[in-house]
UniProtKB/TrEMBL annotation:
SUPFAM superfamilies: Acyl-CoA N-acyltransferases (Nat). GO terms for molecular function: acyltransferase activity, transferring groups other than amino-acyl groups. PROSITE patterns: GNAT. It comes from the Bacteria. Gene3D superfamilies: 3.40.630.30. InterPro entries: Acyl_CoA_acyltransferase, GNAT_dom. This is Acetyltransferase (GNAT) family protein. Residues 1-149 form the N-acetyltransferase domain.
Amino acid sequence: MQFATTTEADRTYIARLNFLTDVFGDEHAEVSSGFDRDFDYYVRDWHPEDGGFIAWDGNIPAGGVWLVRGTDERHGYGHVKEGIPELAIAVEPRYRGKGVAKQLLELVPAPVSLSVHPANERAHRLYLRAGFEPTGIVREGHEVLLKRS
C-alpha cells in the first residue's frame, strides 16, 4: 500500500469517501437526511492544506483520511474545539479488514478528533486501539473521540 498526500485533485475522490462514511460502506443504502449539509462541510469546505492522505494499491484507490478545521459556529460531528482538526476516514469495501484504516490513522498527527456512530462498532474498536479516547461529547448520536498525542 502506498500513501499520497491529498491535493485539490483528490476532492472528487474525497466526495466518494464522504458518501461511504454516510452509508457505512453500503453503497446501496440510502444516504442520511443530513447528507447534503455534511457534504458541504466535509467536502466543499475541505482545504487540501489542512491535510489528508489517499491509500493506493497500485493504481487502485483503497481509501483515505482528510482533515477539516471547524469553528465553534460551524463544525462537523467530531468537533472538540477550535485549533484541533477533525478527521474523516473511509476505506473502500474491498479493502476492509486489511489494515488500511489503521495505517491511515497512523499518518495523522495528534491532537485530532473524530466522531463515530454507535452502529459502526468495528470502527469504534479501531479508534480506541489507535489511541483515541471518549470526550463525553455526543453530537447527533455520534460519539466524539480525541487523540491527544
